[in-house]
Amino acid sequence: MSNVLRARRRLDLLQVVLFFVAVLLVVVADAGVTSQYRRKLEATVEMPLDADVFRVPPGYNAPQQVRLIRLRQPIDQEGTAMIVSWVTANELGSSTVMYSEASPDPEKMELRAEGTHTRYDYFNYTSGFIHHCTLTNLKHSTKYYYAMGFGHTVRSFCFTTPPMPGPDVPFKFGLIGDLGQTFDSNTTLSHYEANGGDAVLYVGDLSYADNHPLHDNTRWDTWARFVERSAAHQPWVWTAGNHELDLAPELGEHVPFKPFAHRYPTPFWYSVRVASAHVVVLASYSAYGKYTAQWEWLRAELARVDRAATPWLIVLVHSPWYSSNGYHYMEGETMRVQFERWIVAAKADLVVAGHVHAYERSHRVSNVAYDIINARCTPVRTRDAPVYVTVGDGGNIEGIADNFTQPQPSYSAFREASFGHATLEIRNRTHAYYAWHRNQDGAKVVADGVWLTNRYWMPTDDDIN
Ligand SMILES: *[C@@H]1O[C@H](CO)[C@@H](O)[C@H](O)[C@H]1NC(C)=O
Ligand SMILES: *[C@@H]1O[C@H](CO)[C@@H](O)[C@H](O)[C@H]1NC(C)=O
Ligand SMILES: *[C@@H]1O[C@H](CO)[C@@H](O)[C@H](O)[C@H]1NC(C)=O
Ligand SMILES: *[C@@H]1O[C@H](CO)[C@@H](O)[C@H](O)[C@H]1NC(C)=O
Ligand SMILES: [Fe+2]
Question: Which parts of the sequence belong to the Purple acid phosphatase C-terminal domain (predicted)?
Fold first, then answer.
């Protein structure tokens, strides 16, 4: 080998070493965290059909799968109505709900609402009788007892209505996605309950019934029995995910969202006002291109948001716009391109997504400068842009998404392949504490937390870790 060649090789080696040093410096300077926490490797196992959480309540035709659902704006602008939904399995029974501020005794409840019922077939499955009953003219911040099942087996529950919307009204949300019904799902729900939120913002993918042969719809029933312990006592705000589609032409099932739509009488895109928050729910699997109904609605809705009255603007979507995980990589991109501009202009505070079965939080970034000829197509730090979080880490049967892209992009502040849930604790118009809790820790442990300052009232303040 000639001296010249040998010298050139040494030079190549030097260049390689310098390259890695440079990469290291860039990574350190960027300071995004890919958490080194490694969950112990274990199968994500669905709870068996005879698990305690799936037990059918005793008594003939007993109401089961009881849940509260918020009505959308503008039908229920202020949160003084609530839909109660439940299923009876033996026969239709009564769709009446009796309720009361004063008495937990169903015999003495003085208020009454009449509901409706529906049922559906899915391949060879026939659902129970699904009841939906709307309670109206509720007072704010008031505890109500309610009961149903009259004529057969009566069950009663209670809930507290949300406070009157106002700029400084404190409220604590749970942020849960892609829950499913495994032992991990049960840990997630238990930890959320221990952390004590007032309502859940649920970012889609509920039961994962479609992962079973014939989309076994009994898994929609078991899931709803499983979450009843929370959902019958506080509203969950529902977002439709891909596992709600249940499209199966091979089974003769051509209507998208059939089981979900029968069971959860909620629109696919809508908004609710809760305390000091205006929550906008988007539908990743409904059309959102220009001139579509969702596009028209969102444009009008963002103009209706009154940040003086409800300072916190929160957007829920199933497929994330900012996720650096290899799983479902860039699936949310077309919706981001369509809507990010509006969301940034509206100074939204937080965009919550699921779909990817891991946890991630972004810095405040935007990527709206691109106009096809200027080539400016990279996310840039933007003080008044929202924070994006992905909480598709509820713990479903598909397991963890542990394939993050490398290196961690600069917009990503924290990411970890573990199951868990998040909470958003709004204190007043300017401050809210966001926290993520991994399932391997005690419920109260904060694995990733940040004080968010409101983008309307404090648009130039940075968040504090
Ligand atoms: C689920 O969690 C609840 C509350 O922590 C517990 O009582 C129940 O036994 C758990 N069920 C299963 C199947 O793990
Ligand atoms: C539906 O069909 C499957 C497969 O043939 C069978 O295992 C299941 O028991 C059937 N379910 C009902 C409710 O008939
Ligand atoms: C991991 O993600 C990358 C994209 O970042 C993809 O190319 C690769 O196929 C993924 N690997 C697995 C095992 O899914
Ligand atoms: C809002 O809450 C934060 C955090 O608790 C507190 O530091 C701040 O002083 C509060 N602002 C007002 C106006 O009360
Ligand atoms: Fe999903």
Answer: 385-445
